[in-house]
């Protein structure tokens, strides 16, 4: 009887080993989760760092203050925007007048050429497409030139044939007149 009970303990040993393996796997899984959390924390550390958040908060606060000031001055801003800006003087010291004249000339020139510059900038993305179109047009022109040269050659040949025919007509007519004089009939 005692021998039988000893053998059954080996089953419990296997069960305890299985329990240990399961516990170790759970511990490994737990450690992997902790490692993953540490990696995420490391990746997001610069975003959630207190100094970075303080800087963001300060920026948002300054924007908020500015928007509040704009809302408080909404009526006066609207009146200023509706008021025409013409005939207002800019106080500039006399020393800088010649520079202002030059600057205004440059501004007028720039404004005159602005539309051309904008058109050039708009066409930059289409440059490759335009080059392809030009290449195909050039190829078509080459084909047309070749066909025109062939037609010109055919026209010259036709003219030569017409000259030969027109030079033969008087001789044929002379032969017919000669045959009529001789009363010779030409077989059809």
Biggest sheet record: none
**Tally of extended strands?**
0
Mean pLDDT: 81
Give the proportion of residues in helices.
Answer: over 70%
Protein name: HAUS augmin-like complex subunit 2 isoform X2
GO biological process, one term: microtubule nucleation
Pfam family, one: HAUS2
Organism: Balaenoptera acutorostrata
Characterise the protein shown here.
By secondary structure, this protein is an all-alpha fold. The protein has 6 helices and no strands. The longest helix is centred in the last third of the chain and has 55 residues. The chain is flat and about 140 Å long. The model has no long low-confidence stretch (mean pLDDT 81). This is HAUS augmin-like complex subunit 2 isoform X2. Pfam families: HAUS2.
Write a concise synopsis of the structure shown.
Pfam families: HAUS2. This protein has 188 residues and is mostly helical. It is 85% helix and 0% strand.
Chart the SSEs and their pairings.
Blueprint: H1 2-43, H2 45-48, H3 50-72, H4 74-82, H5 97-123, H6 127-181
How would you describe this structure in keywords?
mainly alpha; 0% strand; flat; HAUS augmin-like complex subunit 2 isoform X2; HAUS2_metazoa
């Amino acid at each position: 009887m005692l021998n039988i009970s000893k053998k059954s303990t080996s089953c419990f040993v296997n069960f305890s080993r299985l329990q240990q393996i399961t516990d170790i796997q759970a511990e490994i899984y737990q450690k992997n989760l902790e490692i993953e959390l540490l990696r995420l924390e490391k990746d997001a550390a610069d975003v959630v760092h207190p100094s970075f958040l303080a800087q963001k908060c300060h920026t948002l606060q300054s924007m908020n203050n500015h928007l509040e000031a704009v809302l408080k001055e909404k009526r006066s801003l609207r009146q200023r925007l509706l008021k025409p800006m013409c005939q207002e003087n800019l106080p500039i010291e006399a020393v800088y007048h010649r520079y202002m004249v030059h600057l205004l000339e440059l501004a007028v020139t720039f404004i005159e050429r602005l539309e051309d510059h904008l058109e050039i900038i708009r066409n930059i993305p289409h440059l490759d497409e335009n080059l392809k179109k030009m290449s195909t047009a050039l190829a078509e022109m080459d084909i047309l030139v070749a066909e025109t040269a062939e037609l010109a050659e055919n026209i010259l040949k036709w003219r030569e044939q017409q000259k030969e025919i027109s030079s033969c007509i008087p001789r044929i007519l002379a032969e017919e007149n000669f045959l009529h004089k001789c009363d010779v009939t030409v077989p059809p």
